[in-house]
Amino acid sequence: MLYLLKNDESASVDMQKMNKALLDDTYLLTRMLMETVRAVEGPLVIERGQALHNYAVQFYRDNDESAHAKMEELLRNLSDDEVTKVTSAIGYYSALINIAEDHHHMRRWRAHQNAVEAPAREGSLEASIEFVKKNGFSDKNLKDFFNHAHIAPVLTAHPTEVQRQSILKILNAISTLLEKRDSIADITTEEREEIEAELRVKILTLWETRVLRQSKLTVLHEVKNVMAFFSSTFLTAVPKLYKSVEKAVGANDLPPFLHIGSWIGGDRDGNPFVNADVMNEALAYQVDLAMNFYISEVGQLYSDFSLTTDRISGITPELKKLGESSPETDVHRADEPYRLAFLAIKDRLEATKIALIDGKEGRNAGADLYETPKNFIADLEIIKESLDCHGSKLLSKGKLDDLIRAVRVFGWTLAPLDIRQNSAVHGAVIAELFEFAAPGTNYTELSEEARVEILLKELETSRPLVSPHVKYSDETTKELGIFHAARAAHLKFGKNCIRTSIISMTNELSDILELAVLLKEAGILRPAENALDLNLVPLFETIKDLRDSSQIMDKLLSLPVYRKLLESRNNVQEVMIGYSDSCKDGGYLTSRWELYRAEASLVKIFAKYDVKICFFHGRGGSVGRGGGPSYQAIVAQPSGAVEGMIRLTEQGEVISAKYGNPETGRRNLEVIIAATLAATAVPKLSEPPSEDFLNVFDELSESSFKAYRGLVYETPGFEDYFWQSTVISEIAGLNIGSRPASRTKSRSIETLRAIPWTFSWSQCRIMLTSWYGLGTAIDEFLKKHGQAEGMALLQKMHREWTVFSTLLSNVDMILTKVNMDIAERYADLVEDEALRNKVFSMIKAEYDRVYDYVLKIREQTSLLEHNPVLRRVVEDRNPYIDTLNYAQIEMMRRYREQTKTCNPEETNEGIRKGIHISINGIASLLRNSG
Fold first, then answer.
1. Residue 37: what pLDDT?
2. What is the mean predicted confidence (pLDDT) over 643-672?
3. Taking 90 as the threshold, does the pLDDT of residue 118 lie above it?
4. Whole-angstrom distance between the N-terminal and C-terminal Cα of the chain?
5. Is there a contact between 50 and 93 (Cβ–Cβ < 8 Å)?
6. DSSP-derived secondary structure for 447-475
7. φ and ψ at 912, to 5 degrees?
């Protein structure tokens, strides 16, 4: 079932060897899967799967359109059980292909790193340092950057990760075995056979492990799933990354500049299951994981440090005193001062863990508790200083230094937890509080000016608005409970445990001030002290909100009461901008343009008030939700929009793809650091060489916006077309997240969340949100400005302006995943023939325009012409995806026919399961589907 391009004969000998290694890995894994399925299920599943795949290959290789018809006929003749099993087999092929490719990428990266005199790769720290120094960034500038930088990928539970943790663990084990096989320089036949035997066991386990979740995830399941990446990757990879940064810049003990954040357990926006109890449990789980890691590492250090006073010249008095507090009673340890010291530390850690999580003393009741992580680090530093005292400094360079770095970065709670809620909920709570405090206020009926006035008065007094004698509504009680729990967490774990409170759908200044009043009620904002204990962050999501953002922030920063509060936040204001909803609202081109304009305008507003800005980018995995290469996205930010500070979400399937193992995790974190450095040191990277470029982009955006809105929101029946031609209905039953797919129970696109909207278009191979409107915009531009002159200007913009070239590069990539032949098969599921023909013809015509114009502007003869490696990856995957698409369409047709004659509960469960497996497989192969 392999369809892989032959080794590129034009490549270097070393590259040909590596390409052959990829082919060998892929063949090995897929052959083992075929043998496993044949042994367990019999030959029929493999034979049918092989035939379907051969037809898909035939379509691409021979340009044979009849191949697709043969696939449809074969699928129609399979039983429900057969089509489900064939779908499962191909889905697992996709997972194994991902492993082989990821392993190959790391193999190539290591080979490049080890190559003599090889140029530094874009995206590496080495390349960025070289680049910024060439542009006048001195060694002092470099150290200052890392001393003041704040870089924070934030993990979210957005439901686009379709794989179960059990499946991910098996896949990671397979990847580890491939690494093990490569790492043995002169591998023996016996060693190779042992590894291959283990691979067979893992693949058999994979086949016999349930693919789908049987019930919906809870919020705490999501917390545990994402926190698993800290155990597998971050806790070990981040300290090593810090070490490499320190070496590169010639500095020791850099302050924490990279933080891995989370908002799982604190994000209430549209998720009714997040409350104070859930948030507390999420924090407790993070503390437990962090403390267990520290205790384990200290235990390992205890085992390693067997140094005896008979062989060392002397220890410091501080170490001696630390050892004397050890609970060790074994006389055989009396001459091992370092073991005594580590045991004393371990004892204190265990006591601290119990106190933090349970709030009570455990069996280590006699041990002093660590008040803060700094006290823990101080004890570890005592050991370092003593080692240095007797010439054994080398012993601290491994695990001990890494542990100190880990504690500095992760603290007690592992990841700062963001909390988030929709502005409408905050507004409803405030309205209720005012109505009880002063009946007749009618807060929701007040003008914006009147609301701001009443909120500011409340912020100027320390008098509480909430009364303990009033019974408030459930929603108000729940929201107040969250903020009081956040305050309690600050007092218990330190203020770094919750640093940010985000206001979704910020439309007006009052939305921000409402949150400020609620924080005041919990004691997080204290007017008398001019103290604010967390970042109050507006999130601008729709096109209108992005356009209004600078005006809103101008008003906020002009308020003396708020400016005083900002002083307690180091005069830094964070602003979050939403890629997903702005794209769903106005299309890809307009979303990118309005985001760029909003950032550029906000930078000027903040400069006026001498306030530093930190942008928080709410990006998803797909291009339609802000996805794409991280390095290019960061350096394409407007001048002044980075300045050493950036936060960005890592969502769904992106988390496992980027951070599934320590090596890839470290590499992807390095890319974010390198890009932030480059964008800070050379902020003019994204500036347009000509003001004309801005005018052109604005003109293109206006046309694109009208075209996109015209299709999605103004075409009669489009809503029905969407629900019938995509798997949106079936996605709701996938159990891939705790949050509902829609904000209401209606079928309207306005209330549908951006994630299932984008995910659905990806599954049917249209990727609508990533390109629709661009073709019409260019068409109208050329008609207005002339074909030759207009095209020459657009080509010039592409060559000379990073922002425009990055946008078109992303579209170029996404178009390779679009398949209009398959999209038309999904359109056939729409019952109204006239509606089907009308909408699909609009989509197809726009696709043709975009396809042609992207090639012309990028001066290419084919898609991804300038990225042959990625083109090869996509081309290799397409036959697998096509096969799954056709299987999905057939199962959707059967399932919908059954639901016409009986209740959904009475339909064939196997078919519904098969649809979900196909969704899983397609998402896995597309990789950036949500």
1. 94
2. 88
3. no
4. 27
5. no
6. -HHHHHHHHHHHHT--S-S--TT----HH
7. -60, -40
Residue 359 burial class via C-beta count within 10 angstroms: exposed 0-12, middle 13-18, buried 19 and up: exposed
Assess whether pLDDT exceeds 80 at residue 495.
Answer: yes
176 vs 698, residue with greater confidence? 698
Residues 20, 14: Cα–Cα separation, whole Å: 10
**More confident site: 28 or 629:** 28
| Local structure of residue 419 (DSSP, 8 states) | E
Half-sphere exposure of 599 (CA within 13 A, CB side): 26
Q: Taking a C-beta distance cutoff of 8 angstroms, is the pair 174, 207 a contact? A: no
CA gap 545, 898 in Å, rounded: 44
Q: What is the mean pLDDT of the chain?
A: 89
Range of lowest pLDDT (338-342, 641-645, 741-745) = 741-745
C-alpha dihedral sign at 789, 790, 795, 799 = positive
Angle at 591 between CA 585 and CA 810, to 5 degrees: 120
| Cα four-point dihedral sign 476, 479, 482, 483 | negative
Question: Which of 358, 389, 525 minimizes the C-alpha distance to 458?
Answer: 525
Q: How confident is the model over 647-661, as a mean pLDDT? A: 84
Give the type of residue at 665. G
- For the CA atoms of 276, 278, 284, 286, the dihedral, rounded to the nearest 10 degrees, stands at -120
Query: Three-class SS of residue 648?
Result: strand
> What is the chain's alpha carbon radius of gyration, rounded to the nearest angstrom?
29
- Which of 802, 718, 798, 755 lies closest to 624 in space, CA to CA? 755
Q: How many CB atoms lie within 10 A of CB 472?
A: 16
**pTM for this structure?**
0.90
Structure tokens at 856: 């012309």
What's the maximum distance between 2 C-alpha atoms anywhere in the chain?
92
State how far the alpha carbon of 537 is from the alpha carbons of 483, 531, 591, 676, 709, in Å: 15, 16, 20, 21, 29
Q: Is 83 helix (H, G, I), strand (E, B) or coil?
A: helix
**Contact between 507 and 539 (Cβ < 8 Å):** no
pLDDT score for 753: 81
H or E stretch covering 547: helix 543-557
**Among 151-160, 180-189, 221-230, 341-350, the least confident range:** 151-160
Q: How far apart are CA 294 and CA 407, in angstroms?
A: 8
> Measured between alpha carbons, how far is 797 from 693 in angstroms, rounded to an integer?
7
**DSSP-derived 3-state class of residue 261:** strand
In one-letter notation, the amino acid at residue 465 is L
Q: Nearest Cα to 406, choosing from 230, 145, 663?
A: 230
Q: Percentage helix, strand, coil, to 5, in the chain?
A: 65, 5, 30
Q: Are strands 500-504 and 525-526 parallel, antiparallel or unpaired?
A: unpaired
- DSSP label at residue 370: P
Which residues are CB-contacts of 823 (< 8 A; sequence separation ≥ 6)? 764, 765, 766, 840, 843, 844
| pLDDT digits 0-9 by tens, 809-853 | 999 999 999 999 999 999 999 999 999 999 999 999 999 999 999
User: Using CA atoms, how far apart are residues 533 and 149, in angstroms rounded to an integer?
Assistant: 20
Rounded CA separation 155/225 (Å): 11
Neighbours of 614 (CB within 10 A): 21
Q: What are 364-397's pLDDT values in tens digits?
A: 555 689 999 999 999 999 999 999 999 888 988 8
β-pairing verdict for 531-532 and 525-526: antiparallel
The pLDDT of residue 930: 46
Stated length of the chain = 930
User: What's the rounded mean pLDDT across residues 401-406?
Assistant: 96
Question: pLDDT tens-digit profile of 513-536?
Answer: 999 999 999 999 999 999 999 999
Give which of 569, 479, 478, 487 is closest to 283, Cα–Cα: 487
Structural element, H or E, at residue 112:
helix 80-114
99, 322, 337: which is closest to 202 by C-alpha?
99
Distance in angstroms (rounded) separating the CA atoms of residues 73 and 22: 34
Active site residues: 158, 584
